[in-house]
Design brief:
Blueprint (H helix, E strand, L loop, with lengths): L27 H12 L19 H15 L13 H9 L4 H16 L1 H4 L11 H12 L4 H19 L36
Length: 202
């Protein structure tokens, strides 16, 4: 186990304010993208059952988000929550504090990412069934899309998976963990000895 990974680490609510702009609603393109998501399949068939206990995500959403983490962060093991870091489970605990509107938008964005392959890339397979190379090319299309809503959605997904990953894997950002109770630190300055007489100000 790496020094930066803590298995008992619990992700708390995010301190960064998440606005509606992160998940699209502010533009016409965003409204269209969310509209597309609303009519796409939402079932959980053929998605493995998560080992982690989820509060918000379905098995389908959990699988998609972990796959996004693997491709966006470039760490293949994250797709199956191997290596001790379960990005989707960490994010699952974060989003429970979001408003109902933001939660709905997140669900729709994940649905569009999964099934948008048919619309944006004319693929006959959904995102999770593409090859790794095809998945990377598909996500690059989101990141550089001429449709601003797709770029915003991609940035939102990137922020989410980074939060879910780096909240648990400190080595990834070069942080060895808190010193308190783990590292003995010697004070740089010796304390002044206590004086029995008061200083004269005259």
């Amino acid at each position: 186990m790496s020094r930066g990974h803590r298995e008992d680490f619990t992700v708390s609510a995010p301190r960064v304010k998440v606005t509606r702009r992160v998940f699209l609603r502010t533009t016409f393109g965003g409204a269209v993208l969310l509209g597309v998501g609303a009519v796409l399949p939402s079932g959980c068939t053929r998605y493995p059952k998560p080992e982690s206990k989820l509060v918000f995500f379905t098995a389908k959403e959990y699988a998609i988000l972990n796959l996004l983490a693997a491709r966006i962060l470039g760490i293949a093991a994250l797709a199956t929550a191997e290596g001790g870091v379960d990005v989707a489970a960490n994010v699952d605990r974060l989003v429970v504090t979001w408003s109902a509107d933001l939660k709905r938008q997140l669900r729709l964005v994940l649905r569009v990412v999964e099934h948008g392959t048919y619309l944006f890339d004319l693929q006959r397979k959904r995102f999770s069934k593409l090859t790794e190379e095809q998945q990377n090319r598909y996500l690059a299309g989101w990141a550089s899309s001429t449709l601003g809503a797709r770029r915003v959605a991609y940035l939102g997904m990137k922020a989410l998976v980074a939060t879910g990953y780096y909240a648990q894997d400190w080595d990834g950002i070069g942080y060895g963990g808190p010193w308190l109770g783990r590292v003995e630190v010697q004070p740089r300055l010796e304390p002044e000895p206590a004086s029995s007489t008061l200083p004269s100000w005259t």
